[in-house]
């Protein structure tokens, strides 16, 4: 370890604090500039947990189903911005649903609200 202290003579890597930045390819066009850019990231995206009506059959008669109950039943996991209930399946029990999102109002012949509202269920929308 004498004189140049294993850094060689002159040049960028011989200087104090000297090294190439990440992605530098010695003057060749870097790969992050050679590849085309595609799409974008929506910063307003909502992360929704998706359930089907058939998933609600596991609850007992007359139970109020809210986000907390869905977490406890392991139907929803992790951090979500809302819960969306889709229309696959059928409900045969009387339940009180407190849901955040659903596909369309019943007038639009959406399968979910019709499946829930035509049964002896009560749907309350907390917020949109």
Task: Please explain how this structure is put together.
The protein is of the alpha/beta class and 128 residues long. The chain has a domain at 48-125: Ribosomal Protein L15, Chain: K, domain 2. 13% of the residues lie in helices and 16% in strands. The protein has three helices and five strands, in the order H-E-E-H-E-E-H-E. The protein has helices at 31-34, 67-72, 111-117; strands at 48-52, 64-65, 82-86, 96-99, 122-125. The longest helix has 7 residues, at 111-117. The radius of gyration is 28 Å and the shape is elongated. It starts with 30 loop residues before the first helix and ends with a strand. Residues 106-115 have low confidence and may be disordered.
Keywords:
128 residues; alpha/beta; two-stranded parallel ribbon; 3 helices
Quick summary:
With 128 residues, this protein is α/β, with parallel strands linked by helices. It has a domain at 48-125: Ribosomal Protein L15, Chain: K, domain 2, CATH 3.100.10. The chain has helices at residues 31-34, 67-72, 111-117, and strands spanning 48-52, 64-65, 82-86, 96-99, 122-125.
The strands making up the biggest β-sheet line up spatially as 2-4-5
Outline type: elongated
Derived from helix and strand composition plus strand pairing, the structural class reads alpha/beta
**Mean pLDDT over the residues:** 78
Beta content: 15-25%
The largest pleated sheet is described as:
3 strands, parallel
Contiguous uncertain segments of 5+ residues: 106-115
**Helices and strands, in N-to-C order?**
HEEHEEHE
The total of helices stands at 3
Write down the CATH topology of the domain at 48-125.
Ribosomal Protein L15, Chain: K, domain 2
Q: How many β-strand runs? A: 5
The radius of gyration is 28 Å
Portion of residues within helices: 10-25%
**C-alpha end-to-end distance:** 69 Å
């Amino acid at each position: 370890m004498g004189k140049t202290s294993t850094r060689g003579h002159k040049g960028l890597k011989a200087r104090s604090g000297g090294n190439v930045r990440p992605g530098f390819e010695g003057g060749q066009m870097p790969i992050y500039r050679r590849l085309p850019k595609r799409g974008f990231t929506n910063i307003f995206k909502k992360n929704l947990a998706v359930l089907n009506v058939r998933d609600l059959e596991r609850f007992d008669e007359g139970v109020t189903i809210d986000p907390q109950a869905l977490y406890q039943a392991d139907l929803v996991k992790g951090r979500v911005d809302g819960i969306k209930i889709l229309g696959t399946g059928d409900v045969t029990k009387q339940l009180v649903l407190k849901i955040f999102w659903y596909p369309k109002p019943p007038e639009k012949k959406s399968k979910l609200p019709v499946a829930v509202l035509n049964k002896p269920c009560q749907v309350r929308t907390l917020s949109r």
